[in-house]
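This protein record is not my work; I was only asked to verify it. Would you go through it and say whether the fold makes sense for this chain? Here is the record exactly as it was handed to me.
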Amino acid sequence: IPENMPSKMTELLKKCWSPNAFFRPTAKDIDYVLVEMSSNDTEPLEIATEKNLRNLKNKTTSLYDVFPKHIADALNAGKKVEAESHEIVTIVFSDIVGFTTISQKFSPMKVSIMLD
């Protein structure tokens, strides 16, 4: 029995597997039990890791979660974000028409050389 099987489905399955035919439900009994179940009773239980992955996929990321406030403010206002240079890192925002198509055709190293 799968570990993520809902308890009501597990109970029904165990009854169907009963070695004693007297305890096995009839097709009519099974139909009645299934009709009375809600979707929560029939859907597989989410394993914790699956639930966490689903939550991460559904989470909307705010610009303020990713960028410094002044950059997020400018992006929200639709303004151009000027390149800034720091000793440790430089982040450049750029919109290159057809970049997705270009980057699919060339290796990452070739794309990096072209951007330089």
Q: What stands out?
A: Residues 48-58 form the longest helix (11 residues). The mean pLDDT is 80. Helices lie at 7-16, 27-36, 39-42, 48-58, 63-66, 69-76, 99-105, 108-115. Residues 15 and 89 are 64 Å apart (CA to CA).
